[in-house]
Specification:
Blueprint: E1 7-10, E2 14-19, H1 37-45, E3 49-50, E4 59-65, H2 68-79, E5 84-92, E6 99-103, E7 106-110, E8 115-118, E9 127-136, E10 139-146, H3 153-160, H4 179-182, E11 202-210, E12 217-221
Parallel strand pairs: 4-11
Antiparallel strand pairs: 1-2, 2-4, 3-4, 5-10, 5-11, 6-9, 7-8, 9-10, 11-12
Length: 231
């Protein structure tokens, strides 16, 4: 797979791409043949150190370091919550609020499917700030800003408040999106209708960091993927 057209930023310290859906960030121990970002991009950019991860079917801004020193500096920024991450999630349902902050503890790797679950006794502190951006028929576009960085935090928090991300078969019943669901007065034949989004509706749209070499504040943004039903 050619990822050259996904590059947002490249210098001696950083490589930033608009990650497509369907690709792992690192190698999968369960499927060693599955393509992954560091291997695919390493052929053109040399050794790369992932600073954070996006799920296989999450799209958007992905940051990779191009040196061990840059990796250490960026890891420290993430650890000390000095980065600004903004996600957009297409969810099933309509919230009764315009803004909401979810403060619900989460426990990762629970059960056979290794889900992240709400656990008020053993869970770790997890905070996500939500804002309604747009209503699209029976769906809603939500801005999610994670204050903490738990695995699957946004997916688990949205599912916990009754707004699961579309096509998230780990935290809700899997469902694809059809145009008739978001277009009032749709007159097509339902039997012939094709899904317009059959993958996880989560996009990392913005990431702000301090450049590890210059200290300059940078904000990287990634447009929605071509298959997204929203623009």
């Amino acid at each position: 797979m050619d990822l050259a057209n996904t590059v947002i930023w490249s210098d001696d310290h950083l490589l930033v791409i608009n990650k497509p859906a369907g690709i792992l960030v690192l190698a999968d121990g369960y499927d060693p043949t599955a393509p992954f970002i560091t291997n695919l991009l390493g052929k053109s950019f040399g050794r790369l150190w992932p600073v954070h991860r996006l799920d296989r079917n999450t799209t958007g801004v992905l940051l990779l370091a191009r040196s061990a020193e840059a990796h250490r500096e960026l890891n420290a920024q993430f650890e000390h919550r000095q980065v600004n991450k903004i996600y957009h999630a297409l969810v099933k349902g309509k919230p009764h609020w315009d803004k909401r902050t979810i403060k619900v503890p989460l426990r990762t790797n629970a059960g056979r499917r290794h889900r992240t679950i709400v656990d008020h006794r053993k869970g770790k502190r997890a905070i996500t700030h939500l804002r309604l951006l747009e209503e699209l028929g029976c769906l809603s576009l939500i801005e999610a800003i994670p204050e903490t960085g738990r695995r699957h935090q946004i997916r688990a928090h949205l599912a916990a408040c009754g707004l699961p991300i579309t096509a998230d078969d780990l935290y809700a019943e899997s469902s694809v999106i059809y145009l008739s669901k978001i277009m009032p007065g749709y007159k097509g034949n339902p039997a012939d209708e094709q899904p317009i989004l059959g993958r996880l509706g989560l996009h990392a749209c913005s990431l702000g960091i301090m450049h590890p070499g210059t200290g300059v504040e940078l904000v990287f943004q990634a447009p929605y993927a071509d298959d997204s039903p929203v623009r």
